[in-house]
Amino acid sequence: MSDHDRPGPGHHHGHDSVHPDWEMLGPDLERGAELYTPLYEQAASWLREAASGGVRRVLDIGSGPGVVSCLLARAFPDAEVVAVDATGALLERARDRAARLGLADRVHTQLAEVPDGLDALGGADLIWSSKALHHVGDQRAAVAALAGHLRPGGLLALAEGGLTPRFLPRDLGIGRPGLQSRLDAAGEEWFSEMRAALPDTVDETEDWPAFLADAGLRAPGTRSFLLDLPAPLSADARAYVVTTLSRAREMYGDRLDEDDRTALARLTDPEDAAGITRRPDAFFLSAQTVHTARA
Question: Whole-model pTM above 0.70?
């Protein structure tokens, strides 16, 4: 349940597609993970049922600012949770959050690159990684590296895939209908180019259950979880959508036509009656798929 996410509406990255500025994105990543908390809590409950025996140690790989690390600590009250990330500023946020929530004695941090810097992590009964492995060139090898840290009977859970968030009606009343679909298409193009530019990237079908099986794991399971925030949205949710659309406009607005760029400008203008901040029909609907397997 990392707070890192793929590009597209609802997904945040810096301008360098291969090396995003995660430190700069820290506040947005934290706000986004907080918005997704109901979904993450559902997933944590499912993992608690799926985990066999006692869970004493949890690794959150690609933890970002630690929102989900703390949720996992609450879901597994007898476990040490290690938030693992390659950005020190995000781990600092994770430590601050754990301290605020009274979890500093059980939520720890480890600075490490995925997957090459994981040797010092040790074993775990549960390894969670969300939207982090798609930033690794060889995803199959990354899954195998994580599987190697599972204790006997341990569970590996990967949150990858699902449904791109929806928050706009088909016909906005401004510009051409179908803006969200065109944003999705532009985001997918951007994502494919980001993947192609990664070091040692491997172009293969993103079959996460197959990756888990190839890593020697057994008893696969897959489940998707829904986040449904109907209109009218809260102020926090509206702010998150505005930030998301603003970043999409900056990152791949040049893939859209002038009409769509104008519509995006109006949607992100807090003074425009047709903007997300003021319109009554903005909503937030998203699904996250989680793939699991056992050592």
Answer: yes
